[in-house]
Amino acid sequence: MSKNNNLSSLSLAKQKPTLLAAVICILASCFYMYEFILQVSPAVMTNQLINDLGLNAITLGTMAAFYYYSYTPMQLPAGFLFDRFGPRRLLTIAVLTCAIGAFLFGSTTNMTTASAGRFMMGMGSAFSFIGTLVLISRWFPSRYFAFLTGLVELMSCVGAIVGETPLTIAVNHWGWRLTIILLGIIGVILALLIWLIVRDSPEVVSKGHKFQSTSKKSLLQSFHQVASNSQTWFIALYSFMVWAPITAFAALWGVSFLVVAYGLSTKAASAACTMIWLAIGIGCPLLGWWSDKVNLRGMPLKFAASLGIIGLIPVIYIPHLPLFWLYICLFLFGLAASGQSLAFGVVKDNNHSSVAGTAMGINNMATVAGGALFQPVIGIFLHLNWNGTYHNGSPFYSVEDYRKAFLILPFCYLIALLIGKFLIRETHCQQQPDV
User: Fold this and answer.
1) d(CA 401, CA 257)
2) DSSP bridge partners of 390
3) How far apart are CA 413 and CA 284, in angstroms?
4) Contact 152/99 with Cβ under 8 angstroms?
5) Which ranges of 55-144 would DSSP assign to H, the alpha helix?
6) Does pLDDT of 190 surpass 90?
7) Contact 21, 140 (CB under 8 A)
8) What is the 3-state secondary structure (H, E, C) of 154-212?
9) Between the CA of residue 319 and those of 141, 308, 316, what are the distances in Å?
10) Where does residue 380 rank: exposed (0-12), middle (13-18), buried (19+ CB within 10 A)?
């Protein structure tokens, strides 16, 4: 079977190498889309999870954040493993891990098992984005990297959009348990497709060789090379700041806030939150294209951070914001988060190609660390400000509770703006000679 698959891939590669590259990278991007559905799924089932598992804001935020407790620290070994062993096997195992986590989460009756399921989802998902970027770097010329990274982010936003309104409809129709179990079945099918179709590099297909490691360094050696570059950490801090508000607001607490603050139904609030993901999907490839067009990295990074300040403050702190302007501001908020996509191009410019996976792993670790930190922190702030009111047997958090808890979010974009202006050096979209 494997030999026939290799012969088929070789034939396709000889005829239309660009088509094969596109098919492989699109399939890997589907994994990224899939993991985003899993990542944001608690946002549309918060009330059901609170009622069925006996949670409150603190325990719900902690349980949801278990996804990031594995996802975040796995970024570094994930990047290194891709440099050493290639994407095909790792991506297949990773998708299966996500599926097992979904089955575990969907069958749970307590917080402990639910947290374990989220932990497994996060562990598998840790390989999705970096694996796709590694495939792009091997199958396409480097001049397309920033733009194609943006297109990959578009796939993730499709997943996040599916994880809002369509997932809400599914939960209302089938219940949250069956919905999550169905997502697990989808994961098993996706893993099979990745194993059958994805190949590690053009050389593997054209020469029939096994994957050759791009680096003979150990994990510690690769990490030391990347970590000794101060630009790696400035870029990672920027990525953290522009993405942390997304993980806190769009991926968990935003829907429930919009329900309370604007009197929307859960379905309408999740539809409003799709504006965030739609903007990220549009903004990521657009920001990458703009950066490549003007041959600059710093200006788009600063522009993105500025939009976060402009978009998020009215949503949270202007009372009775008209629905039209709510959608506009949520869209600007999403555009701001597109800066983290461009940051992967910047960190790649600032590190040697032999440790590109490790560098992007560190950057993605910083990007998603906001979920591990901010989701439970927002829950703690909410519960500390809670006045003891209950609704249908569950704690009820007021608009003012949310506004106090969300105070930290606009400051993230202000810090990102300062980092982009004063700390990240301009690479002019080129690999830097001193790396």
Assistant:
1) 10
2) 395
3) 17
4) no
5) 57-71, 75-85, 87-106, 111-125, 128-139
6) yes
7) yes
8) HHHHHHHHHCCHHHHHHHHHHCHHHHHHHHHHHHHHHHHHHHHHCCCCHHHHHHCCCCC
9) 49, 19, 8
10) middle
281 closest CA partner among 413, 167, 130, 155: 155
Residue 3's pLDDT is 46
Amino acid at 415: I
How far is 347 from 351, CA to CA, in rounded Å? 6
Strand (E) or helix (H) holding 390: strand 390-391
Tokens (6 digits) for 417:
């703006």
Encode pLDDT of 244-292 as tens digits.
999 889 878 898 899 999 999 888 998 898 899 889 888 888 898 898 8
Q: What are the tokens at 148? A: 């194609």
Domains of the chain with CATH codes: 2-202+222-422 (1.20.1250.20)
Backbone dihedral angles phi then psi of residue 45, each to the nearest 5 degrees: -135, 25
Give the count of beta carbons closer than 10 Å to the beta carbon of residue 190: 21
Q: What is the DSSP string of 236-304?
A: HHHHHHHHHHIIIIIIIIHHHHHHHHH---HHHHHHHHHHHHHHHHHHHHHHHHHHHHHT-SHHHHHHH
Three-state secondary-structure class, residue 316: helix
- Residue 367: name the closest of 391, 404, 337 by CA: 337
DSSP 270-287: HHHHHHHHHHHHHHHHHH
For residue 394, give the H/E element and its range: strand 394-395
pTM of the predicted model, to two decimals?
Answer: 0.73
| Structure-block tokens of residue 399 | 């608009």
Please give the average per-residue pLDDT across 139-167, as a whole number. 79
Residues 261 and 12: their CA atoms lie apart, in Å, by 54
Please tell me the total number of residues recorded for the chain in this structure: 435
Name the residue among 281, 233, 250, 262 with its Cα closest to residue 374.
250
Q: Is 195 exposed, middle or buried (0-12, 13-18, 19+ CB in 10 A)?
A: middle
Question: Which whole-number Å values give the CA distances from 31 to 119, 132, 144, 284, 304, in the listed order?
Answer: 17, 9, 21, 18, 26
The DSSP letter of residue 395 is: E
